[in-house]
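User:
Hi there, any thoughts?
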Amino acid sequence: MRILLADDQRLLRDAARPFLSRLSAKAHLVEASTFNEAVSVAANTGGIDLALLGQSLPGMDGVGGIRVFQQQFPLAKVVVVSACLDIGMTLDAISAGTRGVISKAISGNGMLNALRLILAGEIYLPAELVMTAARLAGNQTTRAECTTSALIGDMDFSPSEVEVIPLLLDGLSNKVIAQRCGAGEAAIKARLRSIYKKLGATNRAQAIWALLACGKIRSA
């Protein structure tokens, strides 16, 4: 596994290195301190499987740099490492093709778990960012009211799906959602699959962002 760690803070690279080496017994880690260096190193390595790019990486030019990197290395799973989590930046980064956003304040083991999730094909979003976005989307109304009002005209959610949506936005597990709804986990999974399909999402993270985005539009 070829891993690129690109950040202008050497201290962060030194701290992350031992954890990244645990992602695979055959992990090959390369580093860079600027965006141009990151592109050059990735090319000289013969491609990258996982790329961690610092949000403030010199020369990256924000989301534009992410798109450039993704175009040059389409097989790489790109992750943005940020010192300051921002909802707008996160939405833009996900739209540009990144597989997740990780806070620089995360623990080493937390980073490792997030990256394993990303390598498994999921999108990782910090829980605190999701909850902040959910609160903003509410804007004096409940998330269920905001979301279903925004979407019901285009998507015919069933009453059982409407019941699940606010619990999904609260970040609850399938088991807890099942307990709250008085249903079995299999039934909850079926409801979630139906919600994902209607939203055009393939996983929980994509569905949450789709719901929050629509909720924000509704509450503006």
Observations:
- Residues 139-153, 215-220 have pLDDT under 50 and may be disordered.
